[in-house]
């Protein structure tokens, strides 16, 4: 998808693809004329790369990111940056030592609906943001079929890393503590031993709040694989967003919402992840800072770790880190 | 509204109305041919009443309820039953001593949408209810204009008493603890010193959860005075309900959702509170138990008190009471 | 359904049921304690009836209606009144000769959404109604499974009789001509030889319009058996109504909108047809005129006949009749 | 907007802008570094242009288009191509004589929702398209404030040219006749003497239909300046699209739907008209045919002319032209 997004984009050439699975690498290589690799170190040694996109599973970013940074390549790392504080520190160290740029792929920053909420806040139209209710959930399809490593992840890592980032970006305040609750058992019965449901209440430094919910147990008869609802209430106005029901409803084999974003428009891929990777390239070429950056990536991982700790302890977990710019 | 709901209903006669404000009492009395009173004890002494509806402000139910029960009248008390544990105990004692029936007016039990959610749960179609997200909020109009006693109430009392009742009714499980967060300051600036926003995470005895939010700070440009969203996810299916957008949108002076329920249909009032009071009367006449009853009323008050305690302490508050049948 | 709607309703007793199918008659008779008949003349002779409800298929109202009127019974006849001008005339004659009252069962008059549109018009809030777009369609289920006599009916008779009535009621203007277009072939392939799609443009005497569409070819994966959309634009305001999506969405075996109206609320049936038959009874008991009456029934049949004539000729068909009061 | 859309786009340079109003031309020229002109012939003589975008009012395309074609420039002409058959012929002649390419700016071809409907049809997922109901209307703001030349246009030209194009593109069938109705008077009272409401029933050569409505009399309190609803029913599936309610609702000064498409994403303009003009440029650069082309432009103008003729005569108007490829 990234290769396709950059195909024909000005002033960039995609050179290589690396996948532990040789066939997967070869397939992408053939389609876009790239060099295929199964070992990222070999790729970094044999190819001159200005930038590398790290798109391994959530928990497996560290090695590729550290090595790519050490080779002098700028980084685009998919969200979450990492799933342990140690991995975050290792990646941060490598990036700072190499003096490269690092963007964390919070692709919802390029989702027009999320941008709209952010812009309403940043422009002052919302006024002071008093609270946000953000629900981002998936049907069973995602943990049981789409991602093979779901048992090593959770709605907290896979989904809440998006909504934590959005809540902080929109509120533009410092998170001071987190309380979380949730349950597990249903997915475990289906062979995926992780959380079914996670709720998290974030407290900001001015006493205001955000309320996040993510589940992985929506029925597969839902009209969309994703349910994404966002309400932000400010002192001056409020915004209420259904990020999945874009008004297109197709009654075919089943009743589905195909969505308005993504896909090709007249042969050119469009949509949030496409616009994100194009921004990464344009800004590098222009010598501009890319973002959201490491600080935000580390902050979001810290908060998700606090969510998981609160789930375990049943108590409020403080957050000490300062927010990203 | 209750008088109108019972006007022409079989086998019932509304006899008297009591309001501290004489003019208000007289107006209703004139419209429906009732005897007007400004003191409830005088009314109870001078009128033979089989049943009394207590519709005073939330915090002022006790005296009227206790005296009416003592007079031998069955009771319909608006929700919440009371706002202190002491008032709950006093009303409970009076009801038990008098051997009368007591219904607590959780009118959403007669809201077809809430009933539908409940029936999907009770029939087994939802399967085990894994979580519920219930948001019930109002525009500024309610705390600043509609109810003069808003500073003595809060989104927790006025709104969450509805959603706590619904969450427990739908889940049919025992609440073991509550964690709440929220903020205040915006309404205080407007002269109503109470909570702007309240979030509450309920934990049930099987480890599952419910997530409740109520705010009193929605913009008055909202298409409805009430925002009421309900999601319940079960192991077998899920239901997602917008209780305010019934598909009727009127672009007049402003853009409004007039709603589908309530109002007169061919001269006869219909809607949840009407059906509730008619149920109260029909069941009393049939010698059947009325409900939801005292136990549920006391439970909901206990949980809202725990929400307020958690708001104050910042800690998880346990709930010890057993659920109502 | 009518028997259930009147069960326990004050001052009415349902006495008898007649169905050509003896088992069907017996079943209803057993459930509600009625006398069962298979011949309506026998029923009319052997039972003293103040009023009769005619609920035969659309094209088979005449004989029952004429005989019941001749017996001195008031009539509630399901819409459309009849499907030929001759049947309309015969029923009208019988009713006038007998001096009984006749209500035509346009049940949408008791649908809160349609009433809302009408009330916005009647109260002047819409201003002069400039145009209406009304779409009322069904999934294949209705013509292929639900009604065995679909090939003798059409979207024009089964659906547009509702929307023609509503358009005239809301606009409160005289229809002067109709142009219709449509297509057939798809249902014929499925063994039901009737129109798939019917569009009708009504012209009112002041030059304003209404645009009606009804189809019987919506996919069965649709979230509701009925699709009903209503837009009315007036000089002062406009109203846009989705009559099927009441905000309740259930993701079960399939994704469905269960709807907010109808069904039992605490053991008592509620909803448009229930309220309609209760109005019929209440008004007869009160000595008040029932309605909508014969004039409106005849007018709607005239307009639907003109729709079918226009479909056949491809030309504009004039309407000469005056509107009902 | 076109200048901004091409700013930074590869392999294109915007050179000049022409506007009868010198200040308007100068403003755009300053912003994007262009040469400003007030006379298009002067611009064509003094500037070497590979392509010209004609964005004059609907009725004023001919002169600029003919002259630009004669100068050897490829054309992008905003829809409708022209508002008379003579203008269509003149532009067609000029284009053919010059051997240039001509694209007609039916920008909805780049609207993801319309594309989705088209793709569902073209891929066979809809099956044979049995009917389409397309409603595209504006609030009063458009005819009374936004476009100064509204009295010379109408909902038929300004809005239905979009929906006629879409209906034909999606159905991929030949239109054989049109019947239209509508009314005027309300806008005339406001000083804009044109049609308030236009309905058009299109008949295709296989007997199937499309039903189009456009009005210019929606209240300004509507949540969007545009109301755009599209239903297409095929033999295999159906699609129901609300093109304006993208799920983003902002309760600010008024209640509005800001929409999901358009606007800048990270400094780069996105949205249908942007993607359209970028397609025009990319295809010209690649030596590929641009489209939709002259044939479609002429066809749509023919059909809108037939709509207006039917409005005048009250009769069905035949269409003789063959459809575009």
Automatic annotation (TrEMBL), chains A, B, C, D:
Residue span, GFO/IDH/MocA-like oxidoreductase domain: 114-237
SUPFAM superfamilies tied to this protein: Glyceraldehyde-3-phosphate dehydrogenase-like, C-terminal domain, NAD(P)-binding Rossmann-fold domains
Domain Gfo/Idh/MocA-like oxidoreductase N-terminal: 8-106
Signal peptide: none
UniProt xrefs under Pfam families: GFO_IDH_MocA (PF01408), GFO_IDH_MocA_C3 (PF22725)
PANTHER family, A to Z: BILIVERDIN REDUCTASE A
The protein's name in its UniProt record: Uncharacterized protein
Naturally occurring in which organism (per UniProt): Streptomyces griseoruber
């Amino acid at each position: 998808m990234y290769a396709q997004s950059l195909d024909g984009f000005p002033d960039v050439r995609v050179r290589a693809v690396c996948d532990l699975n040789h066939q997967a690498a070869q397939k992408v290589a053939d389609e876009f004329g790239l060099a295929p690799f199964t070992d990222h170190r070999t790729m970094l040694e044999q190819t001159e790369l200005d930038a590398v996109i790290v798109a391994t599973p959530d928990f497996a970013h560290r090695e590729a990111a550290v090595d790519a940074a050490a080779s002098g390549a700028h980084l685009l790392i998919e969200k979450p940056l990492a799933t342990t504080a140690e991995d975050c520190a290792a990646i941060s160290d490598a990036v700072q030592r190499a003096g490269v740029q690092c963007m964390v792929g919070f692709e919802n920053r390029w989702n027009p609906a999320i941008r709209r909420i952010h812009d309403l806040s940043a422009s002052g139209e919302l006024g002071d943001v008093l609270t946000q209710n953000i629900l981002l959930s998936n049907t069973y399809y995602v943990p049981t079929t789409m991602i093979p490593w779901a048992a090593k992840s959770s709605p907290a890592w896979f989904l809440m890393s998006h909504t934590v980032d959005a809540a902080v970006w929109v509120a533009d305040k410092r998170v001071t503590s987190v309380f979380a609750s949730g349950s597990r058992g249903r997915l475990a019965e289906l062979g995926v031993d992780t959380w079914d449901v996670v709720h998290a209440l974030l407290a900001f430094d001015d006493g205001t709040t955000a309320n996040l919910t993510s589940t992985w147990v929506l029925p597969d008869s839902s009209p969309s694989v994703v349910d994404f609802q966002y309400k932000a209430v400010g002192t001056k106005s409020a915004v209420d967003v259904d990020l999945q029901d874009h008004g297109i409803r197709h009654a075919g084999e089943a009743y589905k919402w195909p969505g308005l974003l993504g896909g090709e428009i007249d042969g050119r891929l469009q949509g949030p992840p496409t616009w994100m990777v194009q921004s990464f390239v344009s800004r590098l070429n222009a010598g501009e800072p890319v973002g959201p950056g490491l600080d935000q990536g580390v902050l979001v991982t810290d908060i998700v770790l606090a969510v998981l700790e609160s789930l375990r302890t049943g108590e409020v977990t403080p957050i000490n880190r300062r927010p990203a710019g």
